[in-house]
Every structure is written in structure tokens, then in C-alpha cells.
Amino acid sequence: xxxxxxxxxxxxxxxxxxxxxxxxxxxxxxxxxxxxxxxxxxxxxxxxxxxxxxxxxxxxxxxxxxxxxxxxxxxxxxxxxxxxxxxxxxxxxxxxxxxxxxxxxxxxxxxxxxxxxxxxxxxxxxxxxxxxxxxxxxxxxxxxxxxxxxxxxxxxxxxxxxxxxxxxxxxxxxxxxxxxxxxxxxxxxxxxxxxxxxxxxxxxxxxxxxxxxxxxxxxxxxxxxxxx
Amino acid sequence: xxxxxxxxxxxxxxxxxxxxxxxxxxxxxxxxxxxxxxxxxxxxxxxxxxxxxxxxxxxxxxxxxxxxxxxxxxxxxxxxxxxxxxxxxxxxxxxxxxxxxxxxxxxxxxxxxxxxxxxxxxxxxxxxxxxxxxxxxxxxxxxxxxxxxxxxxxxxxxxxxxxxxxxxxxxxxxxxxxxxxxxxxxxxxxxxxxxxxxxxxxxxxxxxxxxxxxxxxxxxxxxxxxxxxxxxxxxxxxxx
Amino acid sequence: xxxxxxxxxxxxxxxxxxxxxxxxxxxxxxxxxxxxxxxxxxxxxxxxxxxxxxxxxxxxxxxxxxxxxxxxxxxxxxxxxxxxxxxxxxxxxxxxxxxxxxxxxxxxxxxxxxxxxxxxxxxxxxxxxxxxxxxxxxxxxxxxxxxxxxxxxxxxxxxxxxxxxxxxxxxxxxxxxxxxxxxxxxxxxxxxxxxxxxxxxxxxxxxxxxxxxxxxxxxxxxxxxxxxxxxxxxxxxxxxxxxxxxxxxxxxxxxxxxxxxxxxxxxxxxxxxxxxxxxxxxxxxxxxxxxxxxxxxxxxxxxxxxxxxxxxxxxxxxxxxxxxxxxxxxxxxxxxxxxxxxxxxxxxxxxxxxxxxxxxxxxxxxxxxxxxxxxxxxxxxxxxxxxxxxxxxxxxxxxxxxxxxxxxxxxxxxxxxxxxxxxxxxxxxxxxxxxxxxxxxxxxxxxxxxxxxxxxxxxxxxxxxxxxxxxxxxxxxxxxxxxxxxxxxxxxxxxxxxxxxxxxxxxxxxxxxxxxxxxxxxxxxxxxxxxxxxxxxxxxxxxxxxxxxxxxxxxxxxxxxxxxxxxxxxxxxxxxxxxxxxxxxxxxxxxxxxxxxxxxxxxxxxxxxxxxxxxxxxxxxxxxxxxxxxxxxxxxx
Lengths: 228, 240, 637
Ligand SMILES: Cc1cc2nc3c(=O)[nH]c(=O)nc-3n(C[C@H](O)[C@H](O)[C@H](O)COP(=O)(O)OP(=O)(O)OC[C@H]3O[C@@H](n4cnc5c(N)ncnc54)[C@H](O)[C@@H]3O)c2cc1C
Ligand code: HEM
Ligand code: HEM
Ligand code: SF4
Ligand code: F3S
Ligand code: FES
Hints:
The complex is a heterotrimer of chains A (228), B (240) and C (637).
Chain A: H1 2-9, H2 11-37, H3 42-55, H4 65-95, H5 111-136, H6 148-155, H7 160-186, H8 198-222
Helix pairs in contact in A: 1-2, 2-4, 2-7, 2-8, 4-5, 5-7, 7-8
Chain B: E1 3-9, E2 18-24, H1 33-46, E3 69-70, E4 73-74, E5 96-100, E6 109-111, E7 114-115, H2 118-127, H3 147-157, H4 164-168, H5 175-186, H6 195-208, H7 219-223, H8 231-239
Parallel strand pairs in B: 1-5
Antiparallel strand pairs in B: 1-2, 3-4, 3-5, 6-7
Helix pairs in contact in B: 2-6, 3-5, 5-6, 5-8
Chain C: H1 15-22, E1 35-39, H2 43-55, E2 58-62, E3 80-81, H3 93-103, H4 110-130, E4 155-156, H5 162-179, E5 183-186, E6 189-197, E7 200-208, E8 214-218, E9 221-224, H6 245-252, E10 257-258, E11 263-269, E12 292-296, E13 313-314, H7 316-320, H8 330-345, E14 354-357, H9 359-385, E15 394-403, E16 406-407, E17 420-422, H10 440-463, H11 473-492, H12 498-513, H13 519-539, H14 551-575, H15 599-602, E18 604-609, E19 618-623
Parallel strand pairs in C: 1-2, 1-9, 2-5, 9-17
Antiparallel strand pairs in C: 3-4, 6-7, 7-8, 10-16, 10-18, 11-15, 12-13, 12-14, 14-15, 18-19
Helix pairs in contact in C: 2-5, 2-10, 3-4, 4-10, 12-13, 12-14, 13-14
């Protein structure tokens, strides 16, 4: 245990934690994206998916149990991801009290890397709203528990909503573009022969997630996904 | 050629400092950047003004003493070169250059362009060595070391401790320097016994000294006059 | 002044072992009662400080750079010698000993040189244990190369950065001791004087380069590892900060200075490109293994080298020295290059260089092989000059590089001031009149790791763990003297910059006491230098104040010492009416223009005693005898 706390106290330990939770997010997001794509197979399959989320794990777990476990896990993960992020952020800015006259010449670092923090916060904000929107439904025009499909389609009727989603997905895409590569670096997944694949992997993950996610809002706007 | 310089002047650590403009007239393209500053200083002296304080010693890119941020690039625009290896032919007539010291909380300015880099020494003092006392060591060929490892260790060991990685890092992190040290010793059989303890102690000191944390911006690698690779950072992370 | 070299009796192979046995030991429990000051954190200083601290002494270590790791040793490129005979090519302690004495043109002490060869092997073991990443073969064994024209491969190297890696090894050992508090490191601190009282060195007076504070440090013994004085020439391959201050001030306090005129001019440096030139850059000697040196047969030939036909090229080294060709020893290669340039065959815009041509080697071995061997050096050259050595030949010219002379020390590395020890390039060393490539790193580490720690113990044991204090009258007197000198420099407020005067001194020494010396020229120099020194004290301009970082003041202080020291170099060169190694007196040469040694009259070490600034120093002679390496003329024909 002390080993762990010591680790956490160090700047590197914080990063490792972020990388680990980051990877969890990546997996979740991919899974989630896959789920969303069910919408294209019609209401039933999508609602089944929503239902499946809740039935998942039975008979071992009762209705919704595993989902709750996952939810809790996610919340914890978010904390373990954001807190060190903020700590590193503070640490970094404290470490350079005086800035350069014309900033640093950019040589290597990517927009992805430089937008991690704000991008991340945006994501945080999004997730909150997003839950109220499509899971809890409190900020949803006419939320019908259980009818995820229609909630989704209705939720996207007013055009600014899907647009906002798409924008956020762009941010997510950037976040992953750096995040996926970065997590490999942080977790020490580095080998002369493997390293040249790290960037491409990040690009692919980021791109797939982006396309996969915006598919639904776009489709709704295009009217491909209509109410039943 | 003529060059316009905006040089950071700061009387002492206490002084707040600011940029002062100097015009370097008919600069010879074969001059090194520091020789250009020498000539500016000679003129200042003739006028009875205090010359610009900047650090240098070997003037051939090996001692790690020199280090200026030129238009936002530590050690200037040329890759894989220290400030003292920079020659005026990389610039052109009429260029306007902003010259600043390394900027980091851990590197307080002492005067003008001179900063205090002793935190790097303290990182090494905390554990950056192999505890071999003088004498009583085995024959040099008693331990065989695969060429690849020796070469890789050498890559890491070629760090000159200039601190440009810190200056270049958006987080002012000393991760590249520390990882180079850790890797140099960690790659050699002699370095194994203390390997884990070494990483923990050195990273601990690094944090205490007030450097930022690394968030993989890779700017350090780009600024490093010895082109030390960030793969060593990954290696450090793994050891930790 | 008495010169007692304290060389042990008996056959040369047994001297060191015998001596080590006879040396008094300090009781382990008492070691912590002794304080030792080590000035310098180069290979010599760092290795000594670390080793002494490991033994239990309390060490204070000083350097003027911002970190001990930046000592000038870091710049050494080529490699370090050791008689390991790993390649099985017939090397041995005896051969290294023999080569060094002969290479030094019979002006070194046999006993010291043999000891150096004896411990050379331990150095490599030590460095490997510290994690120095020497070059290795695929089998995992250490790689060796032949260096500086040696007939055997005994040079260990780490790319082109051997000095850096060795110093980092020593620096790590030092850092370890600093970490556990056995060494107190004083970086950015310049030693300005030695305090000698009751006939022994009691401590030093230093200036904190950041605050300007003048402070005293007392100890049971003082060790100087402050490097060489090549910067007397202003333009040299040494780091800008390298200076003679520490050794010179020690000299003024009674330490004899030996063979000051023995300076080494390195043949393969990049020629100056203009009068703004601040220092010269060395190109590793290894380049001469494949590069061919030539000049155009015609004078002031400004054609592009490629356009000059073979018939009009003079490969003068190959012509004059058929057997050694381009690999003749440093002093010869340098002198011949100077002749070529002086006789109007110089190349480059300023006609101040000779060609080092890889064209033929590239055709023979292919660009690939050449870039593997010299890639980084070629890059370095292109970065500095802007031309590509693969396309056009390099331009090279000799430059001051190493100083064999230094403070006189006995077999225990103790100067003529009891309790003042001198190690590394700072002492007059084991290299005689000329140093072989890759031997300085060896000597620095030998002194620091394996010689001084023994010999200093014997001195301390005899002294006993007496109290030492720096608040005595003696220290205060020296402190005031030092402050006054600084004040004086700041008060001149004249019109000449420090560098302009230093350049002038450099030019005088280079012309009259450089590669070729003669009676008339040296006499002239002895006229000019005092005049220049007066000009300095009347007309130098030192801006700023003492109380903060003041680089102009630092430079001025060092120049003031060079201005006194330069004279001694000339006195020594004048006195030595023979040619040997790096010291070439034009009056004393063979018909073929080779150095003509005079062993009957000059087989001695010239140790000078200080008699006051401007007054002729007194010469003391330590006769040299050669029992194991029979005297013979060097011939590289
Ligand atoms: C470019 C170059 C290449 C070389 N290549 C080789 C090579 O390949 N092989 C080889 O064997 N040799 C080589 N040499 C020679 C060799 O590097 C030096 O002779 C050797 O490193 C000297 O080591 P040192 O410890 O005696 O002195 P240095 O390394 O010069 O250390 C001097 C120390 O003394 C300190 N100091 C000096 N004055 C003061 C003062 N007044 N107060 C406080 N501190 C002071 C400095 O801070 C420094 O720490 C080379 C030299 C040069 C210039
Ligand atoms: C256009 C993109 C997205 C769409 C269309 C979408 C759609 C949905 C829908 C319909 C639900 C409700 C599922 C249910 O309650 O049965 C949901 C839940 C959720 N979504 Fe999204 N989502 C998108 C993007 C994201 C992103 C980028 C994240 C995280 C970074 C995210 C995180 C979540 C979470 C945490 C839940 C709650 C899961 C649960 O606990 O039930 N979503 N999403
Ligand atoms: C919830 C709000 C989030 C915030 C505030 C946030 C913030 C951050 C920050 C600041 C970093 C550090 C980047 C760096 O400096 O290197 C980071 C890294 C990362 N994030 Fe996020 N992020 C969030 C959500 C997410 C999500 C939803 C995912 C995945 C879909 C994710 C995946 C990652 C990954 C993989 C990393 C790389 C970790 C590393 O650098 O080693 N993050 N995040
Ligand atoms: S890693 Fe590179 S930039 Fe950093 S200190 Fe070492 S040499 Fe300088
Ligand atoms: S730039 Fe800084 S963030 Fe890490 S990769 Fe280099 S230390
Ligand atoms: S001055 Fe030594 S590295 Fe630049």
C-alpha cells in the first residue's frame, strides 16, 4: 500500500493513474459507441441494447445491478482521472512562474496534447449534461424511461443539441488522439520495434470513436432515424 | 549582416528585469552565436556599460554550461545543437531575435541570462549513481555487456545536463534529464542492484525541486542538443 | 628551495609497491578528524575528492563552473590509454611505460611514468564498475583502438565523448559523497590564493562568484587539480574558463613551477575564421588515420581544392616521413603545418590552414565506412565551418591544447609547499616534453583514484589531527590582499577591454613561445609582456562591482595572472637551449629540421622559484636519469 501511495505522490504516479483510468474510458467509450450504433438496426435492437445494459450479468446480478457497478466504477475512474489531471496542471503552471516573451516555439507537441486539459474539462461537463439528458432525462423535452430510442431521437430534434454533441465528439477525438498515444508512453509501453505503431493506433482509435459517435446525431438530423 | 537583439537584462535574482534592444551591426556569418554576443559585449564595455551576462565554457557543445532561449527555442532553431554550436549563418540580415534565460521556478535567474541549475545536480546526488567505491572492483571484462545495451546506455549518457529540456517543456518538467540518467545506469548490469530505489529517489527529488510533471509533450526531445529520446521517459515510467 | 623527488629505491617495477608499504597510514577511526580541500572537480579533482571522502576524510571540493560536472575534462574526445593488452597485440605495462617516456622525449621521471602505466588497468576497471559505457564489441567485450600513432591498440573510448563519460563517472562518485555529506561541494567558487603558514599549506581563500564574498577555508591538506594553462595563448582548445590562477598563486606562495614552456600544440584543429574568434575547436586526432594532409605546391593558390591536380599537391608529411606519414607525433605534425603556412602554402580564405583530405579514403573504403568512423566529427566540422568534408577537404591548423608543465611535485604528488598536493594537468606531470594522445585522462584519474589517496594519508598521519581554523591572522592577511587586488582592478576604469589585452598577450606568446622559439624572439617577448602587464594595470576597463556575478572581473583576474605567468614561460623556453618534444628551439635542429635534444646539458626538470613580479625567477634543476629506457633520438622517418 505504501508503495502505491508513494507512487501516487510522485508526478509520474499521477500520470500512471490517469493513463490507467484513461484506458478504462477508452474501452467504455468504444463499447458505448458500438451500442449507439444499434440505433441503426431500428428501435427494438437499440432498446434491447439499453435493456441489455440493465439485464447484463444476470442471473449473477439482478436487474440493473451490474450496470450500477459499472456506473460507480466509472464515477470513481472519472475522479481518479480528473483529480491528478488538475494536480499536474497546477504543478506545471507553478513550475513556470515567468512565461516566455513570445511563448515557446512549437516543435513537436500536438494540438491534442495542448488541449488535453480544457478538452478534458469540456468532456466532464458534457458527461454530466449528457447523463441528465439521455439517462436521467431531467433536461429532456419528453423523456420516456425505457424507451431509449425515442429519447435519443427526440433529444436530437432541436438542432443545436446534435451540433453540440458533434462538437464535443471532436474534442473527445482530440483528447484520444493524444491520450491513447500518451497512455502507452506513460505505461511504459515502448519498444524500438513497436513505437512506430503508437501514433497510428491513437489516430485510428480517435477517428473510429469520432465517426462512430457522430453517426447517430447526424443520422437524426438527416432524418434517417425517425420516431416510431 | 545586421541583427536586432532583444536581450533579457536582470541585475540580480531580486530585480524584476526586462528586455533591452541592441543592434548587432555587420555580423559575420561564420561567427558563432556566442561570438556575436561577445562583440556586442565588447561594444558595451567600450561604452562603459555592463556587458550581457551569459554562461558558456567549452564552446563546443559538451560541457552543458551555455543555454539561451532564442525566439522561444531553447538553444535556438538548430536541432541537435547547443547554443554555443549555433552559427550566425543560420540567421539572415534583419532578423529580430528575442533572447531569454531558461524559464522555470526550479531555475531562478541569477543575472541576465544566467540561471541556477543546481537542482539537476541534487537529482543526481539523491541517487543518480552506482555505489562503487574506489578499488576492489572486478576486471573490466569480467562482466560482458551486449553492444546494443552499451550503445543505448551511451545514448542516454550523452546528456550534457544543460537543462534545455526543462526550458522547452510546457510543464517545465525535468523528466527527460532524469530519465536519461536513470536509463544510462539502468541499462547496465552494474546498475541493476540499485535500479528501483534509484528511480524512486530521483523522481522524488525531481518533484521536490519544483519541476512540473511530464505530460508527454515531446518538446524536450526536440530541444535537446544531444537529441535524447523520450523513449527513456517511457523506460523510467516502466521502472517506476 | 630543496627539490627532493622522494623516488623510492629499487627496481622500477617494485618502487610503487615498496613505497605504498612504507607510507604511514591514518587510523580508520581518526580519518574523520582530518579535513582536506580539493580545488577542481575535473577528472583529477573529482576522483580524488570522491576517493578521499570514501576513505573517511572530510572533503571540501571547489570549482568555478556552476556544476562540478562541467570541468574541462568533459571535452576530451579521443580516449584513455591502459596497458590491458585485451587485443593481445603485445602491449604491457612495460611497453606503455616505455612509449610514454620516449614519447615525452626523455624529460619525464621514469618512476612516475612506470607507476602511471602500472595503475592504468585499474582505472578502466574502476570506470566500468561506475557504469562508464565504453565502446564494446558484439561479443560484449571492451573495444580498443590505436590512437595518436601508437603501435598497439590500448585506447579505450566512448564514442567521441570519452572525457565526458569518464568525468560523469567521477562526478557520480563525487555526487554520491555530496549526497551523504562527506563532501561539501562549492560550485561557482573561485580559489584566489593559498594560505601558507608555519611552513605548510593551511587552506585557501576563495571568491563566491555569485555574491563576490571573499571567504577562507582551512584544512589539514590542500589539493590542486585545477587543470592546464593553454589559455595563456588566448586562442586554445581549452574551455574559456580554464586558467592558471590557482597554480600561479600557489607558485607565488612558494610552490616551484616546473617546465612551464612545455606546451602541446595539437595538429588537427579548425583554423580561426576571423579576429572575433573566441576559441579553437579540436578535431579528434583519429582523423589522421584515414585523412591525408596536403597543401598546394604553389603559393597563395586560391583554386578550389578539387580543381588542384595531384601533381600540384604536396603531401608533405608522407613526403618527409615515409614510414609514419600522416601519423607522425603531434609536435612534428604541428610544426610542419606551421612551416607550410608560414611559407605561403596556407589554404582557406585567410591562408591559415592545411588540407586534411578524405577523398582518397572515401574512394577506397566508401562513404559508408567513413561516416561510421567519423560521422559525428564530420558533422561537427560542417556545423562550424559550413563546408561538407565528404565533398571538400577539411581545413586544419595546430592550436594550443595541453600543457605538460605545471607545479613541480615529488613522487607523492606533493609540491615544494608541504601539505600542498597537485594532481592532473595542473602538476608538471608524467608526460615530459610531449604528451601522447589519450594519456592525460589516464594520468588525471591515476592521480585521483590510485596515487593521491595513499600518499596524502602519509602526510596527514605525520601531521596528526591538529585543530585547523580559518580565523587566524594569516588568513585575514591573505583575504585583505585578495580584496585589495580586486578593488584595484575595478578602480583602474581605463579604456582597454580585458579580452583585447588577452588577445595581445596570446599573440605575443603564440609568435615567440609557440611552436617555434628562438633566442631573439623570446628576448623580445620578455620585453613586451611587462609593458603589456603595466598597460593592463593602468588602462584595463572592468565594469560592474565585486558584490555580484561579474564575469568581466573574473576574466580580468585570470588575465592578470596570465600576464605574470607568460613571462615565466618565456624564461623557461629561453633557458632550455635544446629542442625536445613540444619545445622547438629553432637554433637547435638537425639538417632535416628535426628537434635536436641535448641530454648532456638539459636532461633535467626546470623548477622555477618565484622571486617577485617582474624580477627574474630562480631556476632549480632536478636531474633526470634513465636506467630502464635508454636515451635515444626519436626518429619517425
Ligand atoms: C579538446 C580537448 C580534448 C582532449 N582530448 C583528450 C583525449 O582524448 N585524451 C586524453 O587523455 N586527454 C585529452 N585532453 C586532455 C585532458 O582532457 C585534460 O588534460 C584533463 O582532462 C585535465 O583534467 P584535470 O582534472 O587535470 O583538469 P580539468 O578537467 O581542466 O579541471 C579543472 C578543474 O579545476 C577547477 N578550477 C580551475 N581553476 C580554479 C580556480 N581558480 N578555483 C576553483 N576551481 C578552479 C575547474 O572548475 C575544474 O573543475 C583533451 C583536452 C582538450 C582541451
Ligand atoms: C453522439 C454521442 C453519444 C450518444 C448518441 C450517446 C447516447 C447515449 C444514450 C442513448 C444513453 C442512454 C443509455 C441508457 O440509459 O440506456 C447514454 C448513456 C451514457 N453515455 Fe452516451 N452517448 C454519446 C456519447 C457519450 C460520450 C462521449 C460519453 C463519455 C465520454 C458518454 C457517456 C455516457 C454515459 C456514462 C452514459 C450512462 C450509461 C449508464 O450508466 O446508463 N456518452 N448515451
Ligand atoms: C471526464 C473528464 C476528463 C478530463 C478532465 C480529462 C483530462 C485529462 C487530462 C488533463 C489528461 C492528461 C493529458 C496529458 O497531459 O498528457 C488526460 C489524459 C487522458 N485522458 Fe482524459 N480527461 C477526461 C475524460 C477522458 C475520457 C472520457 C477519456 C476516454 C474516452 C479520456 C482518456 C484519456 C487518456 C487515454 C489519457 C492519457 C493518459 C496519459 O496521458 O497517460 N479522458 N485526460
Ligand atoms: S536531456 Fe538533453 S536537454 Fe536535457 S539536460 Fe540532458 S542534454 Fe540537456
Ligand atoms: S516536453 Fe515536457 S511534458 Fe514530458 S515529454 Fe518532455 S517533459
Ligand atoms: S559552452 Fe559548453 S556546451 Fe555550450
